[in-house]
């Protein structure tokens, strides 16, 4: 059932959204897929392409909305998940307590042309190198710039 609903959502989304299966797993709003689909259908069958409209969907938070805007509509947004929040604080780029604060601070310091790729890049980096527990600092390519490095 969940896959059928996700396929339906893909069918309603614009073409660039197709092929972003790896992004979809981060969109936890789709665990409420049936509710979201009815909201989308009421919206003339279109996936909303504005942050505030997406935030009105059941279960959609800032991260989810920003991923939909970035992956689905090729908009420059910064989706902040646990990896982005942890890594940017660990690297000293920001000093924030919440993902929303991290998003706002990153928008001030990261050139807009990099916003679209930031989440995907830091998620992979956070899963493979800069792990929450036992980060692999010895193989980290930015080790010498990291104030949190463990040698």
In brief, what are we looking at here?
With 151 residues, the protein is mainly α.
Instruction: Tell me, rounded to a whole number, the average pLDDT.
Output: 77
Uncertain residue segments = 1-22, 26-34
Cα end-to-end separation:
48 Å
Quote the beta fraction.
under 5%
Number of strands: 0
SSE topology:
Layout: H1 2-12, H2 21-24, H3 33-42, H4 51-55, H5 62-73, H6 82-90, H7 99-109, H8 115-128
Describe the protein's architecture and organization.
Mean pLDDT is 77; it is low at 1-22 and 26-34. This protein folds into two domains: 2-73, no CATH class; 82-145, Helix-hairpin-Helix base-excision DNA repair enzymes (C-terminal) (Endonuclease Iii, domain 2). It contains eight helices and no strands. 50% of the residues lie in helices and 0% in strands. It is elongated, with a radius of gyration of 17 Å.
């Amino acid at each position: 059932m969940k896959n059928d609903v996700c396929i339906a959502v893909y069918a309603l989304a614009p073409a660039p959204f197709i092929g972003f299966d790896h992004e979809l797993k981060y969109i936890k709003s789709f665990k409420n897929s049936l509710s979201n689909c009815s909201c989308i259908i009421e919206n003339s069958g279109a996936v909303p392409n504005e942050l505030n409209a997406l935030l009105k969907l059941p279960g959609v938070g800032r991260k989810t909305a920003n991923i939909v805007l970035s992956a689905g509509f090729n908009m420059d947004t910064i989706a902040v998940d646990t990896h982005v929040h942890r890594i940017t604080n660990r690297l000293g780029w920001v000093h924030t307590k919440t993902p929303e604060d991290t998003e706002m601070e990153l928008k001030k310091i990261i050139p807009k042309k990099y916003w679209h790729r930031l989440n995907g890049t830091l998620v992979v980096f956070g899963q493979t190198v800069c792990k929450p527990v036992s980060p692999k600092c010895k193989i980290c390519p930015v080790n010498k710039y990291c104030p949190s490095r463990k040698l």
